[in-house]
Amino acid sequence: MKDTTLFSWDNGSFIMIVVFGLVIIGLVAAVLIMMNSDKKIKK
Fold it and tell me: Is-annotated flag, keyword Membrane (predicted)?
């Protein structure tokens, strides 16, 4: 257990980081879309 890094690029963690980033972007986009639709409904 000499390797004290949080992750290793060998085990596909790069793909997991990209997927995690896409999920976060998707959630933010969904919240913004819901906020905009709520404003239109209130009018």
Answer: yes
9 vs 16, 23, 39, CA distance in Å?
10, 20, 44
pLDDT at residue number 30: 94
| pTM over the 0.85 mark | no
The pLDDT assigned to 6 comes to 62
12 conformational bin, left if phi > 0, alpha if psi -120 to 50, beta if neither: left
CB atoms within 10 A of CB 40: 7
What's the rounded mean pLDDT across residues 6-28?
Answer: 82
Cα 32 from chain centre: 14
